[in-house]
Amino acid sequence: MTKYVTVPLERVQLGKPIPVDVWSANGHMLLLRRGQALASADHRDKLSNHQACMTEADAMAWQRSLERSMRAIYLEGVDMSQVSELPLPTEIAESDYLPGHEVNGGWLDLQDILRGLLYQGAAAVSPLPRLQALEDKALALQEKDADEGLFTLFQTLPELELGYCATHALLCGLVSVLSAERLGLPRHKALVLMRAAMVMNIGMARLQDSLAQQRTQPNTAQRQDIDEHAQRGVDILQELGETQQSVLDLVLWHHTPDASDLQGSLLTLLQLLHQSDVLIAKMSLRGVRAAMLPLKATHAMVMQATETTAGLRRAMGAALGFYPPGTYVQLVNGETAVVISRGTRANTPHVASIINTAGMPMGKYVYRDTSISTYAVRAPLEPHTVHVIVNADRIRQLRQHYRV
């Protein structure tokens, strides 16, 4: 049975075509065919008296069309009070009628869905609604609890069989967004950063996963694919219907920020994306080399900064910390711990001890505040040296209990 919902006539523009059929109460009589217009305020009042309504499917598609319009304007930095007062659009795209692609679950669910989309590339079905849903969910999770995101993704980073390309993409997006916040960039810039990070390697997703496990250096053909993947990624995205020029620009130049002709805030976003890409790659395990410890990678990033990039790199170092959530450390008291959230300073994270001083796994994780000298961090540890599988649910409960 067809369901009907009320047409918000006050947001319909006079003299402009309405992109849905307008019916009287419960669909008894067709009042306006799609493409026709409200002629006047009196016409609007007459429709209101007939309890003008539309099908639920039309209503949902019209809402998606409005959200696309709002998003496009928001990305230009227009004040949100103006965005929220936009009239309903006069056109509905065919893609707006696609079923919803809302993403449920957490970061691992995002990782799994994103990997599939990146693998499909140009063959992906309804990719933009899926990307939008992934972006919305990632940013919602980041706002709710960024430390849980960092913990989950850093724990997943060494698990190459899960798909390195998607883990890398989400972690770069999260680090870029957190760094942008440190720099005081407006929130709408985070939307561009997250989207660009998710798709910057769509031109070599399968190759990226293969190279992560390959025990030899890239051959000539692979090297050529690497060199060409940015342009290929832009070509794929345009074929999929991506029209955000800022996203396309960031994907095109994410490996060569110094060669781009971008300026202003978009150049800052490019530098953030590039630096997070380089930093996370250094911290990632490869078949041909070990991962660099976050402390060493972050220190090198800051020390190698130029006059123009120093502020940006310091912001990224502060956003991530020397010991990111999900990584391992040895404490001064001899315990082995996993970092569960960032502290007030880069070198004082909140941790959970998981191995005691005798080298035995602890039956109950114990919270430690490393700002206290007794539990200070002695040294970071490489993941392969810690022979304990961390229970994420127990970590979550510990964080909730101590509110860290």
What does this structure look like?
- The chain is of the alpha+beta class and 404 residues long.
- The protein has 3 domains: 4-97, no CATH class; 107-320, Orthogonal Bundle (Hypothetical protein af1432); 328-402, no CATH class.
- It is built from 14 helices and 9 strands.
- The chain has a 5-stranded antiparallel beta sheet. The protein has a two-stranded antiparallel ribbon with strand order 1-4.
Index terms:
about 400 residues; alpha+beta; Hypothetical protein af1432; elongated
Beta-strand percent range: 5-15%
Fraction of helical residues: 40-55%
Secondary structure class reads alpha+beta
CATH topology of the largest domain: Hypothetical protein af1432
The number of helices is: 14
Which ranges are low-confidence, i.e. pLDDT below 50, for 5 or more consecutive residues? none
- Please give the order of strands in the largest beta sheet: 8-7-6-5-9
Oligomeric assembly:
single chain
Number of domains: 3
State Rg: 25 Å
| The CATH homologous superfamily of the largest domain | Hypothetical protein af1432
- The N- to C-terminal Cα distance equals 50 Å
Helix and strand element order = EEEHEHHHHHHHHHHHHEEEEEH
The tally of beta strands, per DSSP, is 9
Based on the coordinates given, report the CATH architecture of the largest domain: Orthogonal Bundle
Largest sheet: 5 strands, antiparallel
Mean residue pLDDT: 91
The level 1 CATH classification of the largest domain is: Mainly Alpha
Approximate shape: elongated
